[in-house]
Amino acid sequence: MAKQDISIEDLVGKINREEIVLPEMQRRYVWTSTKVRDLLDSLYRNYPSGTVLVWETEGTGISRNLDVQQDKSPLSTRLLLLDGQQRLTSLTALLTGKPVKVKNSKKPIDIMFNLEHPEDISVFDVIEDEDEDQISEDMSDEGDFDDDDTDDEIQDYLKRMTFVVYSRALEDSKTWIRVTDIFQQSDTQILKKVGINSDSSLWEKYSERIQRVRGIKKYPYVMHILGKEYDYNEVTEIFVRVNSSGVKLRSSDLALAQITAKWHGSLEIFEKFANEAREYGFDLDVGHIVRCLVIFATGQSRFKTVSSIPLEKIKEAWEKTQSGINYALSFLKNNTLIEDLSQLSSAFVILPLAVLSSIRDEKISKSEQEALVRWIYSAHSFGHYSRGSSESILDADLSVLLKKNGDVKELLEILERQFGRTTFNVGDIKGKGKRSPLFSMAFLSVKKNNGKDWITGLVINKNAKGKSHKIEFHHVIPKKLLSDAGFDKSEVNEIANMAFIGGRTNRRISASNPEEYLEKIVAEQGEEALTSQFVPLDRNLWKIENYKQFLEARRELLIKHINEFLK
What we know:
Largest sheet: 6 strands, mixed
Shape: flat
Distance between the termini: 63 Å
Number of domains: 3
């Protein structure tokens, strides 16, 4: 195997000229913006950041382009990128200013650079790897700031960071500039925007730091090259082994590579199916589609036997997978109030539904439908698939369905044995914020209760038409007022302080005095506007000084209605 040192600038050039493309086995671009930020920080500090692995081929017919625009190349020989796709796609987008394709849309990678960053490298924040079942594929889903962060916390964070994901709050900053601008514009153009000219004492310092960012282009990667003597199956085996040694790819990605090696064109088929699910309202990950296929092919959810599954069996399982997932998503949309997978604590919930539909040939009695709905809500609310090994728990559920001819009551009994109960008490919601499964249960309970927006009067709907009506969570007792009064952050951001209203209404209310704005809502929309969202009507509880009592009262109301909803 040959190898050569090659700069990022030269790698990006090869990508632009379509001299580097992807093999079919590689999935799409999935990095979040914070991962790009972390890569930039490592390169800026000249830290090691891995190697690049390519396969030299000629006319294989099993390649596709990266998720960033590439020009057509007249060359017949290509380098298929086996390891480094996420890094090189990100760097190409940053150096050229081209957007990347994320699902069905194109988005720029917008990272900001701090001209006044500290030199102390010990302050760098590391983002922990997410659980396989929870990995986001949308780079816009993750930023540096959380909705719960206060202004002081944000400012303190910014002072410590060298690179951050773009935020509108930085638009007028005199010390934060776009990384893409650094590669596209001169020092004069960049610094003029922040009010710095060559006479300023800061010119030399800022210019030196800008040059240091540009120096990332010269960062040398070691590129390992597999020659033309390797065939596709052998390269697939190498791909799997390389990516099994670390945490670069999920096990579903490796299984997908093994499937595409046997079934050319299958990735395109799976992605088409995922797009159809997305159009239906469910942002289904290809990894879950592959897992469902493996379940139908092997009767269990783990990927360790994928390499031994015959192609005929894979194709047969694919037919069942399509039917099963279509049933599961239709059941969620039509038989529950769940409108997308983000309202579930784990997308694994859809897999037993898919298997059940196949076992029963989609013939489910009314009583079983009701039991299935309760299982879905309970499995979600109690975090069924996050209490240990997700795969082990899923396999136990699948085993019950397969052995008991799809007995839903057996699934409920598993939950009761696992948690000892299927209802909640006030202690379960106390101190919990928007990351708790009970947050979406509160939303669903409000929706079931015909909760309405407090100004427009529209019944809340997660898929409301128009950006201004998009549902947001709102602090009933405004966050700023509570923070100024000295309340703890966990208390301020409790589920019990959240209501669900449209974006425009949320902005209109902002940090208004709750005694005044809640009274106005009652006058204009009636008490039902508040009671539909389980907000207590006792005016004394609307006072800032009585916030703890407000939380106690609303916790009781929410838990009561969540339990009624579950029953």
